[in-house]
Write a structure and sequence with these properties.
mainly beta, 187 residues, 14 strands, four-stranded antiparallel beta sheet
Length: 187
């Protein structure tokens, strides 16, 4: 354990009206995923929580509800899409705007959570991820590509236009797939 310490974990809680913070390490994980949540339990430890590990003299008391942030490594050059666009474990549905058809892509999933899926390969930034259910999905199936409007209604998809001023401040227009890096994705 001393030769290979786990990731740093920061615990935070409101104690007597003040925000407190304690630092520890992940020491182990549960042996299996929770079948209902698809999450895994992680055990973090604070060395000497009543002494040196206390936050300005405030210990992390047993039974205290906390939020925990686990330090992860940075993964570069990945894409993100809404979770609903991932079908099965590695298929992403993409709406081909120019042809008005469904494109089914195999992607290399790096990480997924309730908010989205992070992946490499198989799509490019700016393509539209399909989040609606599709019956009898097949590559090349005709689609009517629509999008949620600011007022919450569904309307026809309108290709974003970029002015020279927009291009200077925002190099890549984003639709539903975003590129870049994700900080803190634990693996």
């Amino acid at each position: 354990m001393a030769d290979n310490p786990g990731p740093t974990v920061t615990f935070r809680a409101l104690v007597a009206g003040e925000q407190r913070e304690w630092t520890g390490r992940v020491v182990r994980t549960a042996a299996a995923l929770n079948s209902q949540t698809r999450l895994i339990n992680v055990i973090g430890v604070i060395e000497d929580p009543y002494g040196a590990g206390a936050d300005d003299g405030t210990p992390m008391a047993p039974g205290l509800f906390v939020t925990a942030e686990i330090e992860g490594r940075t993964i570069n050059d990945i894409l993100w899409a809404p979770r609903a666009s991932l079908r099965g474990t590695s298929q992403l549905y993409v709406g081909d705007v120019e042809r008005g058809v469904l494109a089914i892509r195999e992607v290399s999933v790096v990480h997924s959570d309730e908010g989205g899926v992070y992946f490499r390969d198989g799509a490019v930034a700016g393509e539209l991820a399909v989040v609606s259910p599709i019956q009898s999905a097949a590559d090349g199936k005709r689609l009517r590509i629509r999008e949620r409007q600011p007022d919450g209604t569904i309307g026809p998809y309108v290709e974003p236009t970029i002015t020279d001023e927009d291009a200077a401040s925002e190099a890549d227009a984003q639709a539903n797939l975003t590129a870049g890096q994700s900080e803190g994705v634990a693996q």
